[in-house]
User: Fold this.
Amino acid sequence: MSLVLDAAAQDLLFREARTANTFTDEPVTEEQVQAIYDLVKYGPTAFNQSPLRITLVRSPEARERLVALMAEGNQPKTAAAPLVAILSADNEFHEELPALFPHFPQAKDAFFSERAVREGAAAMNATLQAAYFIIGVRAAGLAAGPMTGLDFEGVRKEFLDDDHTPLMVVNIGKPGPDAWFPRSPRLSYEDVVTTV
Assistant:
């Protein structure tokens, strides 16, 4: 059985897509980011929680503060990328559930009244949305460089608040010279899939 998505789209989103390590200086516009979000917001989350929050780091002053919080090997890429996004989980996502899950507005209190439960749900579902976001960046013809080599607590204090947990930083733009490392191996179907 073949996939419905054409081969060029499969290549764009998966086969030829890589984590970019260099970028051109072509800007990433607000319209491009809006189009990415307007596509990926439809990806499913449990109870339609939608806990992902995106902080776009555009000003030079904010970029400098962020670069200082990145691991040494990630600093040059983050300094040079046309756009950088901090992806975080909103631990107070439940406040939006009456609107986002209208057929059961009581879910807010029935399932998510405790902070620890919300933090676990937010982390899992926002990470899922972060994966959608990366695919959306690729769908826009851009490259993404997601990174977790950073001072998470520093990023939270500098850019977020106690209700948001940083997940990753994503550099975004058109790939530059020598943007890709060689493709790393992947596990085979037989290594991953078990039938019971």
Strands lie at 52-57, 83-90, 143-147, 164-173. The mean pLDDT is 96.
